[in-house]
Amino acid sequence: MHNIRPLPQYLVGRFHGWRATSYSENSAWYRRLATDGQRPRAMVISCCDSRVHVTSIFGADSGEFFIHRNIANLVPPYAPDGLQHGTSAAVEYAVQALKVAHLIVVGHTSCGGVAGCHAMCSGHAPELEEKTSFVGRWMDVLRPGYDRVKDLPEDQQVAALEREAVLVSIENLMTFPFVRAAVESGQMSLHGLVHDISEGSLVQAIDGGKAWVEV
Asked: Could you read off the pLDDT of 63-80 as tens digits, one per residue?
């Protein structure tokens, strides 16, 4: 494994700064987390985008959120086919093992994955149509959302598709039997949000996604 290199020094410096301050001042809490295990109240599914930082947005400490990130904050439909499913595995663990009370899907503005899906579905990104494109095949999850926005004025379609990425994910979550059971029994609630990176705002889906209101 000769391709593994030491951590860049700027990250080493940040780590030592964190350990000397945040960790040192809260070491008893971190030891308790290690000993007692995690008991997060919420799972957050958000985008890999480096500008989306849900722990900062909500002021969350270690142990509060079980976080899964992927391209465009998508959840695929339930598909117990014996293959490898990272997002579905994270959902299963959060709901069945951790028994989170809230499952929150957080989308965002200026999402490159959503823009790529729009380009692909509208015929402007043939490279994403290739079977070898991991991004393209992942963004197939969002095709039903594109079908719902394609008749809007063109300058509104991408923003609408960013919201559809959240709604499609919530719809797909409800295809998981254990998610549906937890929701219908009142043990867990689903939430859909879109974060405006430029404005620093959040809107949430209400009435099944028929409307969006500021948090």
From this structure: 999 999 999 999 999 999
